[in-house]
Amino acid sequence: MLLHRILRPSTARRLGSWVLLGSVCVLAASLAFVVFKAQSAVKAQRGDSLTALANASASAVAARTVGVEMAARVVAAAIGRRLDNPEFIEDMLADTVVMHPDIVGVAAAFEPDAVAQVHSLYAPFYTQKGDATVRRDLAEDSTPYRETDWYRHASACESGCWGGIFHSQSRDQVLINYGVPIRDATKQIVGVVNVDVLQRWLQSVVDSARPSPASFAFLLSETGQTLADAKPERVGTPIFQWTGLAGAPEVAAIARRMMAGETGAAEYFSPTLGIPVRTFFTPVPGSRWSLAIVVPYSTYVRDSQRLFFIAVAVGSAGLAALGLFVFLSVRRLLAPLAQLAVNADHIARGDLGFRLDPPRRTDEVGRLTLSFVRMRDELKQHIADLTEATAARERLQRELEIAQHIQESMLPKNRFIGLGAYPFELQAILRPARVVGGDLYSYYVSEGRLCFLIGDVSDKGIPAALFMARTITKANLRSAAAEEPQNLLQQLNTDLCMRNDDCMFVTLLCGILDLATGRLSLASAGHDAPIRVAGGHATEIEVETSAPLGLYPDTMFVGSEAQLAPGESVVLYTDGVTEALDPDGALYGEQRLLDVVARCDSDPAETVAAVVADVAKFTRDAAQSDDLTLLVLRWHGAAAVERSLTLEIGAQLAQVAAMLDRVEEWLAGHTINAELRGDVRVALEELLVNAVDYGFPQGGEGAHLQTLLTLAAGALHVEFTDNGIAHDPFARPPPDLDVDRDDREAGGLGVFLVTQLASEYQYRREGDCNRVDLRFVAKSVLQTGERPHEPASPD
Amino acid sequence: MSLQVRIEPAVAARITVRPAGKLDATSSQEFDSALNLVLAQVPHGGTLVFDLADLEYISSAGLRSLFRARKTMKANGGNSLIMQAQPQVRAVLDIVKAVPVNEVFRNVEELDAHLAEIQRKVVEGDIDS
Hints:
The complex is a heterodimer of chains A (about 800) and B (about 130). With about 800 residues, chain A is an alpha+beta fold. In chain A, about 40% of the residues lie in helices and about 25% in strands. In chain A, the strands form five sheets. Chain A has a six-stranded antiparallel sheet with strand order 3-2-1-6-5-4, with helices on both faces. In chain A, a hairpin with a 2-residue loop joins strand 17 and strand 18. The relative contact order of chain A is 0.06. In chain B, strands 1, 2, 3, 4, 5 and 6 form a six-stranded mixed sheet that branches. With about 130 residues, chain B is an alpha/beta fold. The interface of A and B includes residues 737 and 792 of A.
């Protein structure tokens, strides 16, 4: 989990890493550059100081050699002037060896006969021996002095030359000699002055030129002879004969540069020391000697190495501090971003209640946080608005549904399916395009007349629905009293023109059918003419029409007459049928309607279903554009109701059987088979027993149960009414037949039998009465054969 | 009187009730009284057979009588069977699913075969156990 958190992609970590990486690169590069430069400078400074040390040492050597040289030259010059005075020469030499601290021996050697009063060879030599001065004449030596190296060397040089190192056996000293030629008045060389100095004082200078214990210095003559060296055994040896230099050819090169009088430095690996060394060399002023200082390379670069380590340490510490700073500052700067990311997750999950700290700064992150908070708040507000709007819409929807229910309840309930007490059948349907609509229909039977009407309010939706409610309420009030349809329209028009500021109007077709004669009176207020269907032919009935209701108070309405023959139908419709649109915008049209009603000239319920199905097929999946209403009425002729039986009893069980027997007898008399007689008897018994048992809890006083049987158009219609308490037997759900037979309630079985035996059933409350209509279809009535009977299987 | 009830004597713990006429709201109480007498006589685990050959009509009141008898028989460890139902009666019994299909028989032979089969199963069950 922790690893997962660490490895989770984080802007802060990436930013920090990149900044740190960049800083490391820049810092390392600049540090390397500075260190390189400083190291060079330190090296150069170190080289300079070592060179200066070499120079100083060389000067120290020179300071003393110059003194010796000057003394020797002065002695030589003085002697050259006083060749005539041997005493002077002797005194001069003796004084020199006494007085000059560096000179341990001085000799003057002459060509033969160069000095007055002295014949032949003459070479007095004074040396310091303790506090005493010793004189010796070199002419007395076994080796003639004019043949010695030092004499020839000195007489050959112009103004004085340093000789080499030599070991004086007589004095047991290591010495260096300096010779100067003696010139007479004619500048002819007549002899030499030779002074000896101890090699030791050179050695002391060389020994003091040691910048570190591991370093050393040496002095080289112009011939490559080692005049002084830290190693005493080398003294007097030519540098080229130093032992152990086979592995360092650089040394010979350095020696040659030194002998050439150059100043410089060179590095080589010293085989004797086993380490790399650096040599600084410089000539001794006033002579042809050269002094060299050899230091181990490590000593030479020690400061620069220390500098490097210091730089690395300082750089590392700086980087660590930088990293910490970057980490902390990035985290601090980007902390609000991390919080935003977490809260964005909250929003994604739909949780808007989180707390967000207000930003401390107004930088991008701060502005982002502010925007985020604003977004969250607006989202909250938006959701709240949406919830409210949804609630409002649902409330409106509920109200519309209630309105729809109210509107539906304004339409007549009794459908007159099948033939009952009246010789006609009637079926109507109203389908609003929206939840509520402006179409209407109504019918009413009174005193042998059927009054019916169909209407269409201008506009759609709620305004139309309100006007429809007004219209149908007025129509129901007026229709009972109206003798002729035009009278009804006249009265309705007067009513609707009042307080109609919005100029709503309604087209209406009203008809009154005399049930005995089939005489049909019609009046139209701007509505489509009805259709008569007779013997498979459909034609329009011509009706004189006037202006729609609600527009002009002075409109006059004229009635029309038509005569129906038994079995003929009348179809009333609104333009929702004929003006139904298919997806391409084509109209359904009147002809299609005429065709379909002509084709199915049977009972009204089937006609209505056929028209609705045909319209639906035509419009396919196009939205219904207008309210659709259809009313089909079929008159069977007065004779149709003659085959009927009306029976009435009180609320006593004893009378029930008698009534049932009477019914069965009547049915048998009308050639109804035994099976259907049984079905009718069971159904009727259940209704009668229910009414007797439960309909009159206050006692059966004044109760009457009435049964009306009608045989017509191949169907048996049973109409049962009782004046008991209101009770819809079909409201109860059917019994659950799947529970164990022996456990279930016996109640409800009777009504269930009724619903199963009758083809159609319907209950309604009419005034103080419960009315149940049952219909047994023609098929059952006419069949005389046995009911299909499956043999019981033993298993 | 629209209903007559004939009760045949018990044979091997089987009593046959044979109502004739109409079994409806009017006659069901009378039928119930007759049944009560019969039910008292049926031995434990016995069989009550309704022979409906002569019953021409039944309504929900009659159904309730049959249900009551079935329930009593079952509580007493026995069972009740129906045979020779006429078309109208048979139709009503079918609609309310009054009895299982295998407990309704067309004639005495089917009924006897069914009872013999049950007897055989019981005997075999005893052997098996």
